[in-house]
Amino acid sequence: MSDKLDANENIINETNPFENHIRLTSKYELNNAVQPLLTDLYQISMAYAYWKNQKNDNAVFDLFFRKNPFQGEYTVFAGLEDCLKYIQNFKFSTSDIDYLRTAMPQYVEDEFFVYLENMNLNDIQIYALREGSLVFPRIPIMRIEGPLPIVQLLETTLLVLVNYASLVTTNASRFRLAAGEFKNLLEFGLRRAQGPDGGLGASKYCYIGGFDGTSNVLAGKLYSIPIRGTHAHSFVSSYNDLSDLHDRTLKSVVSDEMFDLANLSMDYLTQLEKFEFNFSLNEANRGELAAFIGYAIAFPSDFLALVDTYNVLKSGVPNFCAVALALHKVGYRAKGIRLDSGDLAYLSNKVRDFFKKVAKVFQLDFFESLTIVASNDINEDILHSLNMQGHSIDSFGIGTHLVTCQKQPALGCVFKLVEVNGRPCVKLSEDVQKATFPGKKNAYRLYDKEGIPLVDLLTRSDEDEPKVGEAFLCRHPFIETKRAYLSPSKVENLLVPVWINGKLVQENMDSIDGIRERVRKQLNRLRNDHKRMLNPTPYKITVSRTLYDFIHNLWLDYTPIGELK
Amino acid sequence: MSDKLDANENIINETNPFENHIRLTSKYELNNAVQPLLTDLYQISMAYAYWKNQKNDNAVFDLFFRKNPFQGEYTVFAGLEDCLKYIQNFKFSTSDIDYLRTAMPQYVEDEFFVYLENMNLNDIQIYALREGSLVFPRIPIMRIEGPLPIVQLLETTLLVLVNYASLVTTNASRFRLAAGEFKNLLEFGLRRAQGPDGGLGASKYCYIGGFDGTSNVLAGKLYSIPIRGTHAHSFVSSYNDLSDLHDRTLKSVVSDEMFDLANLSMDYLTQLEKFEFNFSLNEANRGELAAFIGYAIAFPSDFLALVDTYNVLKSGVPNFCAVALALHKVGYRAKGIRLDSGDLAYLSNKVRDFFKKVAKVFQLDFFESLTIVASNDINEDILHSLNMQGHSIDSFGIGTHLVTCQKQPALGCVFKLVEVNGRPCVKLSEDVQKATFPGKKNAYRLYDKEGIPLVDLLTRSDEDEPKVGEAFLCRHPFIETKRAYLSPSKVENLLVPVWINGKLVQENMDSIDGIRERVRKQLNRLRNDHKRMLNPTPYKITVSRTLYDFIHNLWLDYTPIGELK
Prior knowledge:
- Chains A, B: This is Nicotinate phosphoribosyltransferase.
- Chains A, B: Pathway: Cofactor biosynthesis; NAD(+) biosynthesis; nicotinate D-ribonucleotide from nicotinate: step 1/1.
- Chains A, B: It comes from Brachionus plicatilis (Marine rotifer).
- Chains A, B: Belongs to the NAPRTase family.
- Two copies of one chain form a homodimer.
- With 565 residues, chain A is of the alpha/beta class.
- Chain A has 18 helices and 23 strands.
- A seven-stranded antiparallel beta sheet of chain A has the order 15-14-1-5-3-21-22, covered by helices on one side. A six-stranded parallel beta sheet of chain A has the order 7-6-13-12-11-10. In chain A, strands 19-18-23-17-16-20 form a six-stranded mixed beta sheet.
- In chain A, strand 12, helix 14 and strand 13 form a beta-alpha-beta unit.
- The radius of gyration of chain A is 29 Å and the shape is elongated.
- The N terminus of chain A is likely disordered.
- At the A-B interface, helix 2, helix 4, helix 6, helix 7 and helix 8 of A face helix 2, helix 4, helix 6, helix 7 and helix 8 of B.
């Protein structure tokens, strides 16, 4: 993979005049929707109010969420590369400025638009978790520092780039946990995604979250992800009978002999009927047989047939086996079948029995282990249910529920101001759980001697960091009686620099496969009780003694003594 | 609006050499992700198998869904313009072909790629519902006819363009029904959307579905949709006290007199405290007051303040009223406030009482009807609940649940082959409800004399169409005993030509505002029992006697006589 990336980088170097370029995972540029105007109007209104009041303070914002998605207890952070592409290309175009002049009130001063047009991100500093890291509620995923009006302008775009990427990566990782390490997982969701880009993002981030490939060809082209697919029901129903085959011959793998695949397949179908496979020649649809033969002639080394257009056990599977036996005669091995309806546990077991019987009758061992793909509205719960029932599926094609994150279609990342010119900023609101942790902070992950994460720890940015082998008091952020001394065997500083003084920090960027591997490793190391399906144990988020006192004193200072409502 | 569109068209004409161009709603081109490779790999695999077998049959496909979303009984069709832009620009690029050569098996014949590279859509005929029409299960939304391999290649992209557009438009229309005709509805969902394009699409289609505007600036630029917004909590918390104001003055509307808005506001705050508005000067946060003054100086004619950063009734509203009174002194009228947390019914009523008291005490009637905007995780159910409780909200800012369609994040449109070379195609599958209606069909909507839709009717394409004033036997498609003679006062042929022989049918294209108006009118005409929230009555889909017999005979022909399982 690293070779491939390097190749792409070279291509970019040739066409990209910027000295400082990101490790793009692709040589093809997308998405042109990601630009400074992809934001909420109020960001620009606020920029004007700040500008008008000459309020160019140094501000620190935290990007974080308050609750893990899917009733789970972990989240995978993804979208960093997309954020940094946006940061790198941040520039209001002339047509943007023209549009804003018409869209904002007429009394907005003209110099403001000059200010916008000249805006750049050279004074912005961004620290972030490495992409693909596990992240937990209230830990800053990104910490962004710089002139208040400018950092404020980044909010919406960063949120839209992080929210869905992290949500769908997390979702994919949960499907992977449910399916187990050895099943093949394919993302088939493009047609049901929330728009073209939702589909593209899903394909990329499901791969990062642990899927093996996608049906989405453009995602394959853009991100070098494996693409997979066979044929649809329409392919089968477009054939009426064997006379629809214009060319029925296939050349032997080992000699120049030409075989009539249609005749061979009909012979095997007749044999299968005689061996009591519980179907009759009459029941096996001849259009379906013709379609399978046509497909096998086109893809002799990759024959995988959709078998539920008419009837799986009476038609689809007998027809598939007839063609697979014929292919074998010519020197090719069929791949397997796909089920797209019905009771997947029951049918997959019945199909496996059928395959085993064919293996025995025809003395062809490979038939026993032909691939069975299933793809009918599968979600995480169905994967768990299939595991409990027992099934014979090797590979899952998963679409709608995966890409739209049906269980929870949005992640609630927010972007909160925590410090202005060194002064902590507080937001309380009417809902206590919406209160923010003020002040510029550092974030650490403390590990035990087996390399298992113990807790995450937030400190004030000017505190000493926790040290390996030294006891550090970690406090629950809300409950004063919950606290413990921890002596970590390893301390990880979670927030690493990614954009400093207008330059990308290359060494903290990763390839798509590097990110995918980080997800896999970190999930492996996370304790099982944090990952289980039902009522998982929350992973502990703690604060230092200093930060605890700082936060609670500020909250008290800012709260009017009122009613107990 | 039509003027604006014409202006845009002229701009396109200058740069677009195609004689036949679509009524683009924007002069800015998006989305570059929509291209022939935005498809599932199996479409290209099938194209190869068809090509290899010289199977260039004339095929008819129906695009339809089986179930209305959101437990409702109607769907709004949207996305047609996006589909036709894709159709118009359909062309495999050289880099697409290069990629496919590497991604497909090596034995795929080279001439196939030449075939793909030369492919065009001149032989494709597309009939569709007018965009913004109501549509019901199993009615073909689009009927596409042409060479089998080519039409098959369009499937995934058309589905992704129709599915989310129709889903989110339908969702927005349901929010509109819940909020009532006279509330102001604003879409604020960008940051939680499923990717940048999900956000853009949501903004466009929520407007079409009945929203009044969006916060999404790029959507405003691209689609000429009204954009709206004020400021965030961070704006408030970035101010510490009145000393953060660099310029406190505002010029009078009527004279050259300069006013110190900070002093004026403090004066009014002191007066408010004295008039027993149940807060103390001490409780009203001075940083919040400074922020409001700063914002009012920047936007004196558009002052709308977010009042829940610290405490709505003790700080936010008193501070807002102080600044609004000061603005009035200088000659400006404030707009109102926004609530983003807490019990919205309770708080909005309390705020309204506050405003009414100010109106009375200061003899300023307009204060009574200042705008109250609410925007905290609002969904359709919450709108209904607020209506039942009673509230004083004028305007709703709605994000997450609207744009991600939390109640059901995907619409299940499918694309099914129904006819090849005049022969009907059947797909049965293991699930009966997945069976398709074979054959090329026409679709009609029959109206009563008040212009209310009675039923939708499917016929075979070669049947006579139902006529005004003549009784026509309409049958339930599945239940043989359900049938009725209907004598319509109006008959609408639902499927109109939109792409014929490589040309767009301009007269069946609509402006974005035309589509929006169609949604509004058609929903108004639909009977209330089809629209109600709880257990709505299904709108009747019927088939002609001829089509009924045709379908049922085919289903029987294709079903093996098996077990009753």
